[in-house]
Specification:
single chain; 6 helices; mainly beta; 22-stranded antiparallel β-barrel; globular; 5-stranded mixed β-sheet
């Protein structure tokens, strides 16, 4: 009898694992029933896609049994999204309605992979192509074009994302589906990711600890890697951009190919920039070099799919201190950082009839070296003019790094998507991390230590006719073992509840409540030394407790054929907020700063509208305003809070016989005075920046060539951003910059 039961069970399992299906369908225009050609058809859970042929028809093969979301998208039409159950009894007949609004994409950073219009949580999404055509020098520069997102910058090469006033370890960065760990605690530590091979950027604004654990207290910057090619297709491209201000360039080359089972891609890129220029001077040692390589290998057979990705990024970044040498060399002077970052990731899914198991593994190896300024040649130049023209402080190749740290991080994320039960979609999972920090340099900023995280979570999405609810809970434990010192153990329980409803036919409301937490980092717990670049002596506090926050987020969106209006407001309470404060003492001529805790609050939001009048459907007028205020319980202001900003954009889109997907835009940004400053900051004057650009796609030798030209700070205004780390020295941000971009598809 036992043998019979085992045989039946194995038969059911084998039927689940080996049942394969073919999805066939046709896509047409709702108004005239004409077939639509080259429409994108995509199954996000399987990461499998194709396009319609000249008859509007498509075929997707080797699809296992189960429930899958199918997404149909095409420029000029509303995006279609529907869950289908396989096997199908008949082919799909799908009609798309025309729309002037940009087509929607699936949001990957949220657990149920829905379109933004279906999401309970508001998530901002931008493709890296959109950021490039606006003239962004790199990824950290580009994300400032996303509402509610800024960067704490040190020149052009070093930038840290700021989401609604929170940054550093309060904002978690994900890339290749795994958390990025690269010593985020430092003010002068950059993102460390090249935009080449990144398809889009998603931003969760607010606590996301339910989904991601510690360090997602302020939000998540989620970087989606480049997709593999559609099945049985291949594609290559060459991309280059030149920037007049830095006389620098970004270039990349990539190729990808997919068969019925195996698929692969690779992309290499090089960036080199000299010191950026203002109206009066070049900002010495803002030069940088970067090399990046990304590769991916995917496999899908029956009810199993997997992909492996690897990224190595090597960068050499100058750290500016004062205005000195004036030239256009690209080799950084001392002080500078030399950083190598390796990211390995593995993402796999096993599909059952009505459920699936996802498991993601990641390993990050961050090798950081910082070389100090020894002023080698200062005494060799008696003439002041000679000093201006020569590269003093050049690096001796045999010189050892003053600060050398290696951070090795292994993380895992296992989630089970339960069978859909009526209106309920539910996910349960476990996440964890093992991290080892080791010092090799002559200086010690943070100690050798081992960190272990473990978290367990459950979340559900409940869909009603006019109402969607998402809720969940999570428990986390973090253990920090500091070598030859002390151990700390941190626990936290967090939850989230969100509701989305259509108040009227065209008006959508979202209300979210979420808690989050952040355990103190090594710098806050155990630092004891001078933090180079900040000119302060930092002393950690071994008695710090978790930061714990609770945020209320309310969003309203009105959308019809010609007008979109949105209003997002938030109120964020953070208990035991960790901050630095001077104690009035000096060590080695540097002021001593201690880590303290107090309760804090941040509040504000983003507001705007998008107008595209009929019959001028090619015209888009967009306006947005963003504001955030941060205060401690004693009503003093938090440091590094971005100033209020108003953006106005006029954009046109057009099609010609010789130019496809043509566009042009003009943007006027007004950044207001920042007078709500911390007692250790100074106020910052507001400024206005004018930008413009145009581009499109032409056919060259039978292939597409994308062309774009963008100009930023056209009036060459002299200004200082409140979040610039060069502000205390009165150093201006970048002046006028014109970029020329080419992208040739092979």
């Amino acid at each position: 009898m036992k043998t019979t039961y085992v045989f039946v069970l194995l038969s059911l399992v084998m039927q689940t694992l080996w049942s394969q299906n073919t999805i066939q369908g046709k896509v047409s225009d709702t108004n005239n029933n004409d077939p639509l050609v080259f429409v994108n058809v995509y199954l996000p859970e399987l990461e499998k896609g194709t396009v319609t042929d000249e008859n509007g028809e498509f075929t997707l093969k080797n699809i296992p049994n189960g429930n899958y979301k199918i997404v149909i998208s095409f420029i000029g039409y509303e995006t279609y999204s529907q869950t289908i159950s396989l096997p199908l009894s008949e082919s799909l007949d799908i009609s798309l309605a025309s729309s002037i609004i940009e087509m929607e994409e699936i949001i990957i950073s949220t657990p149920f992979h829905k379109l933004q219009s279906e999401n309970v949580m508001k998530v901002e999404r931008k493709s890296t192509k959109e950021l490039r055509v606006q003239g962004a020098v790199n990824l950290t520069d580009g994300i400032t074009n996303i509402a509610g997102v800024n960067t704490v910058s040190t020149g052009m090469s070093i930038g840290k994302p700021v989401i609604r006033g929170l940054s550093s370890n309060r904002v978690l960065v994900y890339t290749q589906g795994v958390r990025l760990e690269n010593q985020q605690f430092g003010d002068e530590h950059g993102l460390g990711i090249n935009e080449a091979g990144i398809e889009s950027v998603e931003v969760i604004k607010g606590p996301a600890s339910l989904l991601y654990g510690s360090d997602a207290l302020g939000g998540v910057l989620y970087l989606n890697p480049e997709r593999f090619a559609d099945e049985n297709t291949s594609e290559g491209n060459l991309r280059a951009r030149y920037f007049t201000n830095t006389q620098g360039f970004n270039s990349s080359a990539g190729f990808k190919s997919s068969g019925s089972e195996f698929k692969f891609l690779f992309r290499g890129s090089v960036s080199e920039h000299s010191d950026y220029e203002t109206e009066d001077y070049r900002v010495t040692n803002t030069r940088f070099k970067e090399q990046d390589f990304k590769a991916g290998l995917g496999y899908q057979k029956n009810s199993f799919k997997t992909e492996l990705r690897y990224n190595i990024n090597r960068s050499k970044l100058g750290i500016p201190e004062e205005i000195g040498v004036q030239n256009t060399n690209i080799t950084p002077l001392e002080p500078f950082q030399e950083i190598t970052n390796h990211i390995f990731s593995s993402k796999s899914t096993v599909f059952f009839n009505n459920s699936s198991l996802d498991f993601t593994l990641g390993y990050t190896y961050n090798d950081r070296k910082e070389f100090e300024d020894h002023h080698h040649h200062e005494e060799e130049h008696e003439d002041e003019g000679d000093v201006e023209d020569e590269d003093h402080d050049e690096h001796d190749e045999n010189e050892e790094a003053a600060l050398h740290m290696k951070l090795k991080t292994f993380n895992y994320n296992v989630k089970y998507n339960l069978p859909k039960l009526g209106r309920f979609e539910t996910i349960v999972g476990v996440q964890g991390m093992n991290q080892v920090n080791t010092n090799y340099g002559e200086e010690l900023l943070i100690p050798n230590a081992t960190t272990n995280d473990f978290g367990v979570l459950a979340t559900s999405h409940i869909h009603f006719e006019t109402l969607d609810i998402q809720l969940g809970a999570r428990f986390d434990n973090r253990q920090i073992d500091i070598e030859n010192s002390f151990n700390r153990n941190f626990n936290s329980f967090n939850g989230a509840l969100g509701v989305k409803t259509n108040v009227f036919n065209k008006l959508t409301a979202r209300l979210n409540f979420a808690s989050g937490f952040r355990a103190p980092n090594l710098s806050e717990l155990a630092s004891d030394g001078t933090h180079e670049g900040t000119n302060r002596y930092e002393i950690g506090n071994a008695d710090l407790s978790n930061e714990q926050n609770f945020q209320t987020d309310f969003a309203l969106e009105f959308k019809n054929e010609h007008v979109e209006i949105f209003a997002n407001a938030f109120y964020n309470i953070i208990n035991d907020y960790i901050f630095l404060s001077p104690n009035g003492e000096f060590i080695d001529e540097d002021p001593v700063f201690l880590y303290l805790q107090d309760n804090a609050r941040l509040y504000g939001g983003e507001f705007g509208f998008h107008f595209h009048p009929h019959p001028l459907d090619w015209l888009h007028v967009e306006t947005s305003f963003e504001t955030v205020t941060g205060q401690l319980d004693d009503d003093s202001y938090l440091p590094l809070i971005p100033a209020n900003t108003l953006n106005n954009t006029v954009r046109v889109e057009f099609e010609k016989d010789w130019l496809k997907e043509g566009f042009a835009f003009i943007k006027y940004s007004s950044v207001f005075d920042q007078n709500n400053v911390n007692e250790f900051e100074t106020t910052t004057e507001g400024f206005n920046l004018l930008s413009a650009g145009f581009g499109g796609t032409v056919n060259l030798f039978g292939n597409n060539l994308d062309i774009s030209v963008a100009a930023t700070n056209i009036t060459n205004e002299k200004y200082i951003n409140h979040l610039s780390r060069l502000k205390p020295d009165g150093i201006f941000n970048i002046g006028r910059n014109i970029s020329f971009g080419l992208n040739y598809t092979l």
